[in-house]
Amino acid sequence: MTDFAPQTMAVPDKDRLDEDRLTAWMVANVAGFESPLTYAKFSGGQSNPTFKISAGSGDYVLRRKPLGNLLPSAHAVDREYRVIDGLYPTGFPVARPYGLCTNPAVIGTEFYVMGFADGRNLWDGTLPGFAPSERTDIYNAMCDTLAALHTTDHEAAGLGDYGRPGNYFERQVARWTKQYCASETERMETVERLIDYLGRTVPPQTRTSIVHGDYRIDNMIFHKTEPRVIALLDWELSTLGDPLADFSYFLMSWVTAPEGRSGVLGHTGPATGIPTIDEMVARYCAATGRDGVPDLNWYFSYNLFRLTGIVQGIKKRIVEGTASSAQAEKSAAGVYRLADAAWEFAVKAGA
Question: Tell me: the pLDDT tens digits for 298-316?
């Protein structure tokens, strides 16, 4: 049987942690922790380096900021920890939060520790090796989990001030324009056109919820045997905002060709068991009380523009030598492809 456990790798010298200081911090701050500890780095994820900590008391996960010069609003591990800490008591599937360290003297950067979700990490959205009925159940679980996030009472969860209310897409287009410009390595005319078009055509916001910001299959841990999400991971881009940002980003998989990641274009319907985009829209709307969603092409363009900004940031970190994943260089080559795809959807939306 395929091993879907999250994979780890040997820790490169540049990512080594100070074991003595980390152990002392864990003893003082993590309830029930028993030393000694060992650690390995998770293979996936290239934004905030993530480590599996193993100790006598069990397994934990540590996420820290990268080392080096960083963009001001990026890699906010304190925000990640806050949203997990707020959601965990509500029963929404997140890892158990154990502690946040804002003192860079411990391991060189801010970090937090959470529980290790022991389950399946699925990377390929086409779900090879699964029966059609299993694929249907897994996709329905992803849709239902997103709907549950968007209907969670963020005020009751202590997250009422986790983001500014209203004008979400206006603020996000401005934010990613700024992020892109801050990490620009060369002028791209397609991106310039996108910045102009998206800024002029922002859709109205009708709802506010917690928005994950990177909702896709590989950012979830599923139960080992059941089609159920037990932990949604990687909250770095989360905020309060328009839930259509998350939902349209989730639906990007349906317009993305399969390449071993989340894309399922051409692989939906009864033969595969992967629901169609219309079926996902109907299920999400039923769970969130919507009577439909607006034309998705603008949202697809926005999501690809945002990805362009994220990948451009990775490209910039490669230039500066701070990128944290072996996949970073390959990902950075996708900047041009992402920008062109974003413009194609902008044209479909009326640009």
Answer: 999 999 999 999 888 888 8
Is the torsion defined by CA of 191, 197, 203, 205 positive or negative? positive
d(CA 68, CA 321): 8
Which two structure tokens, joined as six digits, stand for 27? 């003893």
Q: Answer yes or no: is 127 within a domain.
A: no
- Asked whether residue 108 is domain-assigned, the answer is yes
Are 228 and 259 a contacting pair, CB within 8 Å?
no
Q: What is the reported pLDDT for 1? A: 41
Burial class (CB in 10 A: 0-12, 13-18, 19+), 308: buried
Give the chain's domain count. Answer: 2
Largest Cα–Cα distance in the chain? 60
Domain boundary among 80, 115, 150: 115
Q: Which ranges of the chain have pLDDT less than 70?
A: 1-3, 44-46, 68-75, 323-328, 331-332
Instruction: State the Cα–Cα distance between residues 227 and 139, nearest whole angstrom.
Output: 8
DSSP 86: H
